[in-house]
Recover the amino acids of this structure.
């Protein structure tokens, strides 16, 4: 699977904090979510040490490979290289995209978080495969976000990407759940550039039944809303 073939419809971003994971096993929760139809997964772990990151990433990769979906690592190019997974997701304060590309190669999937038109234009020009556009809505999962941009800010960024003329894929992130997902997709859409999917942490990871939560979200992503 090359970077161009990726299905971004339902992008699971993991969380290892007790507030979201509780005492459940991360790999089991992720596998349940994959069973429910998650199409791409990012291992995001701000609490574990490097040795734990590598061993957990290996376990997650064994599972995502069985489901034939890509596994990306948040922030840590070294961890992605160590386990040989499909790519990384980097923020504005992480190792820069051009250096990440040099280290990981042209076949790696590299995504970048963007909150502004300027950040989106730069990431397009520097060769991002996809952009994580956000923060859509304020969320307790990430409180140090620079900006909450809503559907109108997201639409402006989609327009800028369309103007760049590059085939960069896009997902929205922040506060997306089964109540908000259709509004996010349809109110953000620009006439020539729509979101390819939604990235979700708590609405799947903290759900009592992550499989059911993923199933419901995927069906909402695939269904035009009543207000379209
Ligand atoms: N980046 C911007 S918001 C966010 C990240 C990683 C967290 C999204 O979490 P949730 O629980 O889906 O709102
Ligand atoms: Mg980061």
């Amino acid at each position: 699977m090359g970077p161009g073939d990726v299905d971004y419809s339902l992008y699971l971003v993991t969380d290892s904090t007790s507030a979201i994971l509780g005492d459940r096993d991360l790999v089991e929760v992720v596998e349940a979510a994959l069973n429910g139809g998650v199409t791409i997964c990012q291992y995001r772990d701000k609490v574990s040490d490097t040795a734990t990151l590598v061993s957990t990433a290996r376990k997650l990769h064994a599972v995502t490979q069985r489901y034939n979906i890509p596994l990306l690592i948040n922030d840590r190019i070294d961890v992605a290289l160590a386990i040989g997974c499909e790519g990384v997701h980097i923020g504005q304060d992480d190792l820069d995209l051009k250096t990440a590309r040099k280290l990981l190669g042209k076949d790696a999937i590299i995504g970048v978080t963007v909150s502004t038109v300027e950040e989106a234009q730069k990431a397009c020009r520097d060769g991002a495969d996809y952009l994580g556009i956000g923060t859509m809505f304020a969320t307790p999962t990430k409180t140090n976000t620079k900006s909450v941009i809503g559907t109108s800010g997201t639409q402006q960024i989609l327009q800028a990407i369309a103007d760049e003329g590059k085939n960069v894929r896009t997902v929205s992130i922040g506060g997306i759940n089964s109540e908000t997902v259709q509004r996010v997709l349809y109110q953000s859409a620009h006439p020539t550039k729509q979101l390819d999917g939604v990235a979700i942490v708590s609405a799947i990871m903290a759900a009592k039944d992550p499989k059911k939560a993923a199933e419901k979200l995927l069906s909402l992503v695939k269904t035009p809303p009543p207000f379209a």
